[in-house]
Amino acid sequence: MDSPSSTTRIAARSSMIDSIRGCGLSGMRIDKEDLRRKLSIPEYLRVAMSNAIRRKEGEPPADTCQSDVIVDGNGVQPPEAPMVVFINSRSGGRHGPELKERLQELMGKEQVFDLSEVKPHEFVQYGLACLEKLAELGDFCAKDTRQKMRIVVAGGDGTVGWVLGSVGELNKQGREPVPPVAIIPLGTGNDLSRSFGWGGSFPFAWKSAVKRTLQRASAGPICRLDSWHAVIQMPSGEVVDPPHSLKPTEDCALDQGLQIEGALPEKVNCYEGVFYNYFSIGMDAQVAYGFHHLRNEKPYLAQGPISNKLIYSGYSCTQGWFLTPCISDPNLRGLKNILRMHVKKVNCSEWEQVAVPKSVRAIVALNLHNYASGRNPWGNLSPEYLEKKGFVEAHADDGLLEIFGLKQGWHASFVMVELISAKHIAQVLQSLQSLFVHFQSKSASL
């Protein structure tokens, strides 16, 4: 994860000042043409990658890329900081399309990918593969460009996670280095962006701020971020609409050292994916899922972060988040009745069952300091408390998840305004929650 700071110990919440700070005079001092020269990939390479993506020919053979080379790559000066941008043009309200045009002005048009047209895995599978093929054929410019490549994502947490998951496949395929990723926050919560100092909202004077962000992204130090592999099992026959981050899989065997109470379904559907910020079960997840579908069905309601937050808050009320005592179904009053949680704690190789507090209606496994638009529900814990609970200070690259609970709407509200901390449950290396949700760390440098 590319960051403007050399440390991952970022303050939990970015204030509005952080967004305004990027809009100042320092942003306007950056010369547009100098920045363009620094970022722009030579035209013959841009065209080659663009054509490879358009053709979708899998691993491109030598002649696929050679036919696109119109000049000798060894005679072309490679860019100082080659960069590509993925933009979710539907995010950020009315700013999405304008931002796309602005980014195309600041670098080659072929370097800006609209996610509605080009998916990040297509760029990895075809575009980067074409660049690598040219490098193998002796093109020094292509080799240097691939080595220095950086990525900027303009979107919310979901978009950033989608891109991180796609470029993370390069590690599995042995196609290193993995390009570091910077963020232009266009979403509602922007917790990944906040955690690495890229701001919590889209700036007011965004045209000059974009230049500043690209400048910082081109030379900023690289920070580490844990990625977590999640496996979900559910009875076969269930109708599901999985997000980009989840893919069907046949391999969903549980850890042999784990004893699960009760019988597993004979036939199950399995999905796997990667997450970087947090994973939740219960009312919190139900509200987020409902909001996601409402926004997809009625996009005219979601015109920007403020309207999104208002809709989200309203949806929380209609789902019974604040009316727990009035709910007749005891299974919906708390997760204890329907959830069993097993974890591997720090310095322990054995699975341990952790009791779910009776009053908890939402459980969150947190990888960052930030949650729900910059809140810090885990809190800033004293050394004495950490020692008493057997916890360590939380970081985004420590290979640990912080698991906490939210009781009901009023408790969650006090946590969100940071009057109190959430209900601390565990700090773990691995966790399995049945509902049969299994996730473990795949710590990566992104």
UniProtKB/TrEMBL annotation:
Give the CC-aspect GO terms.
Answer: membrane
EC numbers on record? 2.7.1.107
Among SMART domains, the record links this protein to:
DAGKa, DAGKc
UniProt GO BP:
defense response; phospholipase C-activating G protein-coupled receptor signaling pathway
Q: Which UniProt keywords apply?
A: ATP-binding, Kinase, Nucleotide-binding, Plant defense, Stress response, Transferase
Q: Which reaction does it catalyse?
A: a 1,2-diacyl-sn-glycerol + ATP = a 1,2-diacyl-sn-glycero-3-phosphate + ADP + H(+)
Q: Which InterPro entries match?
A: ATP-NAD_kinase_N, DGK, Diacylglycerol_kin_accessory, Diacylglycerol_kinase_cat_dom, NAD/diacylglycerol_kinase_sf
Q: Spell out the molecular function terms from Gene Ontology.
A: ATP binding; ATP-dependent diacylglycerol kinase activity
Q: Which domain of life is it from?
A: Eukaryota
DAGKc domain: from which residue to which, for each copy?
78-234
PANTHER family attached to this UniProt entry:
DIACYLGLYCEROL KINASE, EYE-SPECIFIC DIACYLGLYCEROL KINASE
The record's family statement is:
Belongs to the eukaryotic diacylglycerol kinase family.
Query: What assembly does the database describe for this protein?
Result: Monomer.
* Stated name of the protein: Diacylglycerol kinase
Please name the source species: Citrus clementina (Clementine)
Classification lineage: Eukaryota, Viridiplantae, Streptophyta, Embryophyta, Tracheophyta
